[in-house]
Design goal:
globular; 3 helices; alpha+beta; 162 residues; single chain
Amino acid sequence: MDFELIYASRRYKGVIKNLMQFYIYDFSEYVGCDVEENGLFKAYLKLDDYWKEKNNKFPYIIKKDEKYIGFVLVKRFKSKSNYFSIAEFFVMKRYRRTGIGKAAAKQIFNLHKGQWEVHQRENNKPAQEFWNKVINEYTNGEFSDHVENGRRIQNFRSPKIS
């Protein structure tokens, strides 16, 4: 798979902030949000936290052929040292169904070894299909899947042979 997953240093903050507009646009059909007076979606809350020292958040950029095509925001639960969650995951439409998203997700799981929780809104069927397929393949079917508080949640442990 010809792409790069890059840890997003502070210099990529503006790139993620801009890509976030496309992500929120895609997500708007599931959460019912609209643009504000300036024609932009409201800024992603606490995005700046991903670049604070000694935090439990890890931002990544996805690039292909030197072009920005997506991002991944990972959170580590403060109460548990090796317990991670995908906070946000975005691949531009042009690059979906190419295998890049699946490969990037597996790379993230391998970078952050431990227990994982991945969740999607219950009404976001495309995301559920994507994550169930990726996690099932990554774990060889060794994961749990349940619905709680309007979210479908998958739990599993990494690393596994992928």
